[in-house]
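Reopening: FXL18 protein still failing for me.
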Amino acid sequence: SPQEVVSEESEEESNGVNLMGFSDEILLHILSYVPCTDLVLNVRRTCRKLATLCLDKSLTHTVLLQKDYKVINKDKVKQLMRDIGKEIYQLNMAGCYWLPSSTIDHVTRCKNLVKLNLSGCHVTSLRLSKMLSTLQHLRSLAIDVNPGFDASQLSSECKATLSRVLELKQTLYTPSYGVVPCCTSLEKLLLYFEILNRSREGFMLSGQLMVGESNVPHYQNLRIFYARLAPGYVNQEVVRLYLAVLSDRTPENLHAFLISAPGSFAETGATKNLLDSMARNVRLDALQLPKAWINGSGLLQHLKFNNPFYFSFSRCTLSGGHLIQWVINGGKDLKSLTSLNLSGCIHCLAPESLFRKAEDDIDSSILESLVVSCCNLRHLNLSAAHHHSSESIGNHLCQLLSRLKHLLSLALPVCSITDVAARVEKPPTTPNLVPQTFGRKVRIGIQTYPRNLEDQATQKIESSVFWALMGSLRFLETLEIIGSSFSSAMPRNEPAIRNSLPPCIRAQSVGDSEVAAISQLTYLQSLTLAQLPNILTGSGLVSIGLQCQHLRTLSLANLGMMGKVVYMSALMDMLKHCKCLRDLRLEQPYFCAGAQFFQALSHCSSLQRLCIVSRSGTLQSDAVMSFMANCLEVIMCHMFMGESLTVCKNLQQSIVRSFQAERPALNVVIFPLLHEDLTEVIRDVPMRHLDEITLFKSRVAEEPPNLWW
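Support: Ran it again with your exact input. Result attached.
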């Protein structure tokens, strides 16, 4: 703030040093770490020199407003556009859902815009037409297409601007081509299909598109095609219409073709023709296909790759033998590959899948070939599968992965990190623990886990393969350890799941001491732990809180026995040290969100988003209100518990009434987890929150790196 700048300058002058005495080059470098909104609206009013420097083109060229939840409102956007609109070449307003649609009108002042991101902002077709008519230099655009969009309302000037756009990201909430037919020069097309099967009025939707004059996309210059589908048959119908043109003529310059589709997405004659054409005519750098298009088709042996940087074979039945033979060419040097997603690919580390059981040991030679060939991997996802190592010395999965020194993000199943010797030993037990099923509600207390057993376990893990792996990946930023059979109680577009599958038997030996090993990751920013049944006290969480001071995102789900929250005391101790934590997601049956928990959570001074999912969980309304009053940065509070609808509604209304005025971006959803109307409530959650924190999923290598700016 200006006051802080002045106070720092006064203090430095008293010490014989004047900040303004630094060269302009040094000052510009310092100011580059300050958000542009602060520079223009606050810092430049401090003194004449800063007034000039804060408007330097190097600082105003790119304006990022996304996730600026507390600072940005409609008046500040108006002031910002009036002051520096003509100097802005890149403007990112993604996820600014709280701004009224009229705010978008001020973007017309940015006459020189080249890149514009309005994902998550409500923009009508008329408003879009008016805005784009003035942006003649625009080459990159991201928008949402909502119900009521009408392409026939786009002016000729708007269509002229769209004809010059090279990159388009379009999120569809209604069956439509959006502005794709107008973008005749497209080189990159990203499509996110978020269409529900039923309208708000309860009518069934279909994939019939109504887009005005034209319904033919222009793909002749396309280099990157990406489509991500939410669950639902309508999304599949609509994406097939987008693909129909591609099946007639495959773009010669296509080098990335990616379709992410959950569940079953059957191959048709048109898609088969498209894939055959791709096999004949293009060389790819990135590939992701629905599992039904790959399973048993032999397609991969015909596709040609140039310098691939991203592969995703998520949920495919691809065997390790075919992975090495068809994708890695029998051990070919693939140093260009930086991101690989094999989540749910249960046979990917086995030579063949015909007679193999999912629980059988992996073939370490396949993983070794993968590690040697793809030595520059930065993102690797092996979750949602049973990857069990054999007793061969030196061939454990963790030992082989430790060679990947460039890894920044890693997702592993819980059963893959256990030592081979540990699986034959009975894990330590504690007295008075409930069975590992959903039991009756019990009082939360501190576990009386024998200290000498805990010390022995810690000494043992320090010589384990997982401890060594964590020690070798010092620069890892994202880690996910997820049970191979874990499924969240809150699936997408469906009622809550009441029952969960039991964890893998080998996961029974993974507990507190393994979690403590994660504390070696000094630069860890995001951590997900799910379905670790042998958590007894949660003591490893405290170690993480103390050592991982850069932790920004924490997601914990189904740790320890399912009938009680055995790690509550440790979690509260951990939270007292998480000063940088911004996002917290907790999913645990019988979780008590009471005064002690929220008092500990109040130490997380940077916290912005909180999500709690708990079957039969309870909350204390006054504790929640006190927490919201003390934590001024919190703008999202989602709690899906076991409380009554009346209790939930009253608390939600109280939070909104008390804090919405001073926090325009505040989004509050408090609702019974097992209520039949849960899916209707979820559909109103801003996509940024829903996709990033409310819904559980593995995010490592989910998309190619740097897919969009």
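The first strand starts at residue 62 and ends at 64. If you still see a failure, please send the error message rather than a screenshot.
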